[in-house]
Amino acid sequence: MNGVPKPLSALAATALLALVLAACGSGGGSTSTSPTTAGTTSAQKEGGTTTTAAGAGKKAGSGGNKGKSSDSGEAREASEFVPKQHSDSGGGSKQFRAPKGFDNSIQDYGEEADTSERDEAAVVLHDFLDARAEKNWAAACTYMAKSIIQSFETLAAQSKQTKDKSCAAAQEALSGRVPDSELAKAAKADVGSLRIEGDRAFIIYRGAPQGTFYAISMSKEAGAWKVAALSGTPLN
Questions:
Q1: pLDDT tens by residue, 67-82
Q2: What is the pTM of this model?
């Protein structure tokens, strides 16, 4: 992946988190467990796909996970998060290519994944973004790569300003004060491509504002895709 620009990495995220913790600390909440695997299904729809989480409408995640809502102050468990259905247009990475002479390293990364693989990764991204939009930090952690979770927890463990050392508390410290409208805007994603190489990949998607293309890194762990960045990086 040399020369490939990366969306907000674990290193960048922890550096930002360090500033947040030093400034205001983070308390309350509770512990989070290892990420769970979200099942997926997909169906063709008007040339694109409709992606849903298996068992949509049921509670997702591990019942022991808890987060804290910055708005209500009430603890939220990962099991309270209910995945939503999303429609993705698909179409591959060609539609996202920049003009000749500009950087297309992500658009050319690895190989284009098949539809089923893309849909599996898309469901994980949608669930991650939706969980963050609901400020259910514990649920969001279940869709994150271990590298980011471990970075959060390691940094939190070294901080004297926070008693809660969990992934959920670390996410709240980073994003808990972000307006709901901004988190909702960030959750608007129309996945068009998954560029894959081994257990690493990039999802390329349309987001807000309209007409903006983003890429976000993904990693496969124990056969399931996980989000390997906190946010997408604009490509245009």
A1: 444 444 455 899 999 9
A2: 0.74
